[in-house]
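Sequence, structure tokens passed on for absentees:
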Amino acid sequence: MSLQPQRPICCPRAVPEHTRFRIRPVHGLFSHSTLGFREVTRIGTTPCMLASSGRRPRRTLTPGTKASTRKGFAPRPQVGTSTQKKDQNDAQEEEVSGSSGAKQPAISSSGTTDRKVTGDAQSAEIVPTSRMSSNLVKRRIDILEEAEQQGQGNDETDQQIFTDMPSDSPDDTETDGQIADVGNEGDGLALRYKNIVVDHSNKGIGTETMTDQFSEDGIGKEITTEQFSKVGVGKDTATDQFNDVGIRKETTTDEFSDAGIEEETMADQFSEAGIGEGTMADQFGVAGIVEETTADQFSEVGKQMIYVKNQIGRITIAEMTEIAGEVEEKQAVDESSLDISDVEELAEVHDSTENAVLDMEESLLKLKADMEAKAQRQLLENLADENFSEGIIVFVVPQVVNPDQVIEIFFNRSLSALANEPDVLIKGAYNGWRWHFFTEKLQKTDLKGDWWSCRLSVPKEAYKVDFVFFNGADAYENNNSKDFSLPVEGGMDETAFEDLLLEEKHKEIEKLAAEQAEKERQADEQRRKEAEKAASEADKAQAKVEAEKQRHRLHHLMKSTSESASHIWQIEPNFFKGGDRVRLYYNRSSRPLAHATDIWIHGGHNIWSEGLSIIEKLSHSEKRDGDWWSADVVVPDRALVLDWVFADGPPGKAVVYDNNNRQDFHATVPKSVPGELFWVEEEHRIYRKLQEERRAREEAVHKKAEKTARMKAETKEKTMKMFLLSQKHIVYTEPIDVRAGSVITVLYNPSNTVLNGKPEVWFRCSFNRWSHHNGPLPPQKMVPAENASHLKATVKVPMDAYMMDFVFSEREDGGIYDNRNGMDYHIPVIGGIAKEPPMHIVHIAVEMAPIAKVGGLGDVVTSLSRAVQDLGHTVDVVLPKYNCMNLSNVKDLHFRNSFAWGGMEINVWFGQVEGLPVYFLEPQNGMFSVGCIYGRNDDGHRFGFFCHAALEFLLQSGFQPDILHCHDWSSAPVAWLFKEHYAHYGLSNARVIFTIHNLEFGVNNIGRAMAYADKATTVSQTYSREVAGNPAISSHLHKFHGIVNGIDPDIWDPYNDHFIPVPYTPENVVEGKKAAKEALQQRLGLRRSDHPLVGIITRLTVQKGIHLIKHAVGQTLERNGQVVLLGSAPDSRIQNDFAHLADQLHSSHAGRVRFCLTYDEPLSHLIYAGADFILVPSLFEPCGLTQLIAMRYGSIPVVRRTGGLYDTVFDIDNDKERARAQGLEPNGFSFEGADPSGVDYALNRAISAWFDAREWFNSLCKRVMEQDWSWNRPALDYMELYHSARK
């Protein structure tokens, strides 16, 4: 008995008469059945009208099984068996019979088809699974059409059915979603569609999704119960139907997600799927798809439904999957009764609807677009009217602007300054006019009023749109000079954009750097090729010359050479050629080797053109009478002439030679006659040899330069870390290297500062010398660090930082500050996109090494300037043009210009000295053409004039230096002349730094300069303390600092020193110094022995402790050492005294002592390298460079503890803690006092270490070489001073 099903639930409107359907096969969504044919058919309908509103659809969920596909909502039979369901259907038909006498369509629930109308696919999907004939399809279409006609008049009956339908829950309309919401919200009826899934496998029924309200363009505002009855929606299709198919009454969001059903408005779903508003029966009927099932089949399905209902609430997904599998297996048996003809009929039906459905979809898309256009038009008209009425001339759509979105800007020309302009353009950018500039032309719109518009694509980086309007020329509408702006919501904020800009700039800098590096590489490669080409041509020319010379020499030699000298040597056979083996005989009697036990031949060919090519030992010949010796030798292939000598041993071991009275022995090769081809080949051979030798030299130079650069870089990096850790007892950072873009921790120990004992410490920080565009960071209260002795604060370093600046205070609002005595704390930042702006420093001095050097001042001017220049700053030097100057060290010296000042013409010359730009001032009165630098009675007047002339030159030449650095008494007048005459008249940007090199001279000038200078320095910390009580300095201690001098690592470099025999580094210091000592002993006539050698390099003055020098010489000789002294005395009495002492010592200790009482630059290098110790017993020493150079060459300093000697030499036994505080290790021997006992204390310990602990002593030499005493560190200290002067 067949079951009469309920009217299928579908969209709450009947499908109109002209609704078209399309059935589209979709392959591959399900597993193959036994038929070998499996497809999903999509059914789409075109409704009369569709509408939508802004309301969002409700989401409901249904669980899915592993074996099932996604499902939507589907009608459910009433609870019970198939017989009960039939009775219920009969009862429902009787209830509506009064309203309509039409016959209800009979649609069976057999396994004929699997249907699915999913929210995801937005279409009805049908899988053919049973037999269907074309006649049956036609008959069922007729039934459905008849049902549709009758359904249009059954509103009241259907409404009654809908109203009387039983429900398990009072809010079934909310939980099941089967009751339509009727209301008058917004623009029309609030009616919710259902998305239906019919799945006869009983694997579970999917979910329902609902649309928002229909607009007035779709369904009217009132829908009666009759309208609902037309589509056959009964009230009892709610809870019981759900229960019958095993779906819980409530589903969660997670379950919905598992089912793969997305939330979409029903209007869009139906539109895109092509499903109209008619009844589902009509839809299925038009498609030619009807269901039949036998009573037995339906009964089996009903049993499964009953089981599912009984399990509701406790059934698991796995169990549901198992049930579905069993039903599917049952259906597979039923499907086996199908034949191929039924399948073909279905395919024909599908094909016949394809074109119709395509047309239907196009109509739907057009309808949807028209509706959206009407809504958009209405919105724009409303906005235009509202803004015009309020006098607003600009609005935007959408009204909320988001990043990465296209917006349309509307502009009312009539209300603007452009009211009479024919063209309107928009000009703008994003984020405060800093990102992506644009200019677009506006077009006149068809809105009421004078509205113009254009579209813009908002970039994802935008947080604000800035713009103005103009006519394309000079007429602007700029919102009363405030510009127009629109906020962009949902994107990055201003801080994030700033970071983006920095990242973009960093990328650009890296790109430019890479491009520049590539250009430089290509330029270097081009230069290398050009140099190689030039060198190759030079090699060819040289090879040609040498070949021609060899040709002439060989020609001359071949004429004078016999085939043998019968009484001395002979060759057998007489005729031979290259490659032959011959026997050479030698008669040693009456020759230099007459008494030699061994005789060797050392030979070559072609006037030794290829060096030694024949080496053989001769044996005594028994075949000849007399003292004849012989050896078999092979004649070289290209030999024209054989060359040889006889010796008493092999090469390198022979002592006695027979070289034919310095003429060597020669023999022609009889069968080798040179031709032109030979000399062409010979020239080419010489050319190849020259090339190989040249390239080997170049490679050696290149490798050496690379190693030198690497060592310098490593030393500089090491020194920078020492600089950063130099105040670790007060402040340091973790990590030590502060990198842009990173977060670092600042650790501070207030116990060693003015904030000791304060209950709170506040950290105040900024960047880039307190000039960062974001200003100082808010004060941050420091918290205890893990090490208990320090406090800490964290800082995010911006990408555009190159320097971190900070101080500490006792309160948030200030109070007592620790600002490092006015210098502030500064730490360089690496890896940033911004570089520190170069500072312009001008040195005004009267000495400069190596062109005008008298003492250490000249070294400081040159070396400090080079070191600061290497840091990226601009440095110039202004110097008098002496006529005694060594101009050979001035590169590209030329006349620059002249200027008048003080009634005198002054010529200006320019040149490069050690890579530094130098301006030479030459007054035409000849005051500096006196043959010397110092020593005249008018030195004060001459140097005062020079200082004033130098400032005038800077002014007239347009210089704007940041720093004027003057030195010692000779250029001290710069300080007060600048402040009195130039600080407010053209050179106002400058600050004056004054350095005292030696307070012994010109105290009056020094005192006056101290008063006027912004900052003052001396050449070591200890010396600054030693002279602090001097009246010239004592009142200015607040701006007085000690910075130790350095040495020039390029001038004093044992690895690249041409004055020593073997270049060396810390790795081979022992071998290098041994070779230097042997060379020094040989040059000075000292005994070549392994004894400690003490070197003394100094000016012989009282300051240098000459009485201690004399004692040290005697003590060294007494300890079986050697002494070398290099120096001269400006005082003739001292010079004569040392000359007399030298005579005595040279006589009494010959081979162990040598005095060289002069200045010899090359010899000084050899002494620094060859000596084991360098003695510096100065009574006072502001800084001292001798001990620094000594350590550079691996010689151990022995010094008196004073001035810079104390600051740079740390005693092996007594200064371990002091050295550790500076990040160093002990490096020498020192003594106090100015008596002989002090010298003995230090010198004896040093010599004993040399004798008793040679291995340890050698490691000490390596250690001192690795310490950096260059200008790397002092240059950083001076830059800190320069910046503090400009605060």
User: Anything to note?
Assistant: The first strand starts at residue 21 and ends at 27. The CA atoms of residues 244 and 305 lie 5 Å apart.
